[in-house]
Write a structure and sequence with these properties.
By secondary structure, the protein is of the alpha/beta class. Helix content is about 40%, strand content about 25%. It holds the Pfam family Glycos_transf_2.
């Protein structure tokens, strides 16, 4: 039975080719929804015969909902441009394509950081539902860290194999990405209007470091485990600090 793949992009010439290559032999429809890239993203997508639609970015959830609605087939696999199917996961999906026994499918995401596979930090196994029947479910309305709404865990089958996520090629890239997420999360928090104490950003940041580095065993990932833990801690600090400042200005 047919499968659509949706991908949202913005200036992803570095990653999109690897992503599309991994879909060879499995995708019956590839839709790329792009936020007006200025690099070679569109050119590369055309080489793989992907449908290419440009749309103003108005949030991850909205962008992916739009892509899901414009997919040709009901079963939809959602990927980010910096992700690729491992051979084992590809085989698992191909086996399910013959029958589609469940409305939702989950699998583990293996994150690669500066070229190194991260095995701890809460980053693996990082299980997500990314393959689903759009006639049954769709994306949540969260502005950040969007996900597929699942009300019944019995409706989900976990597939063997990893989705390979090449998250950041440099520490600076990760720091900038986390600052962006912190700003978005701070805006969401500020809209709630709840009072935030001056000490809260420090407590949240310290706990995030302890959780990632100690509880989630980031220490076992060596140097990059420390850097990831420190970067996530700063992101948490910024989130609550920026939200507090925004609330005080109201």
């Amino acid at each position: 039975m047919p499968l659509s793949v949706i991908i949202i992009t913005y200036n992803e010439e570095r990653n999109i080719g690897r992503c599309l290559e991994s879909l060879t032999g499995i995708a019956d429809d590839i839709l790329v929804v792009d936020s007006f890239s200025t690099d070679k993203t569109e050119e590369i997508c055309q080489q793989y015969s992907a449908r290419f639609i440009q749309r103003r970015f108005d949030g991850y959830s909205n962008q992916k909902r739009f892509a899901t609605e414009h997919a040709k087939f009901d079963y939809v696999l959602s990927l980010d441009a910096d992700e690729a199917l491992s051979p084992e996961l590809k085989t698992s999906i191909l086996n399910e394509k013959n029958k589609w026994s469940k409305p939702c499918y989950s699998f583990n995401i293996r994150n690669h950081y500066c070229g190194k596979a991260i095995r701890h930090c809460g980053w693996y196994p990082d299980k997500h539902v990314r393959l689903f029947n759009r006639s049954v479910t769709n994306w949540t309305q969260k502005e950040v860290h969007e996900s597929i709404a699942v009300n019944d865990n019995k409706a989900v089958m976990h597939l063997k194999g990893d989705l390979l996520h090449f998250t950041c090629s440099s520490i600076t890239e990760h720091q900038e990405k986390e600052k962006k997420y912190a700003r978005m999360n701070a805006d969401i928090l500020a809209k709630k209007g709840k009072n935030i104490l001056w000490i809260t950003p420090y407590i949240k940041g310290a706990f995030r470091f302890f959780k990632t580095y100690v509880i989630k065993l980031g220490i076992l990932d060596g140097y990059y485990g420390f850097i990831i833990s420190k970067t996530l801690a700063k992101s948490s600090f910024y989130k609550y600090s920026w939200a507090r400042n925004a609330i005080r200005k109201k």
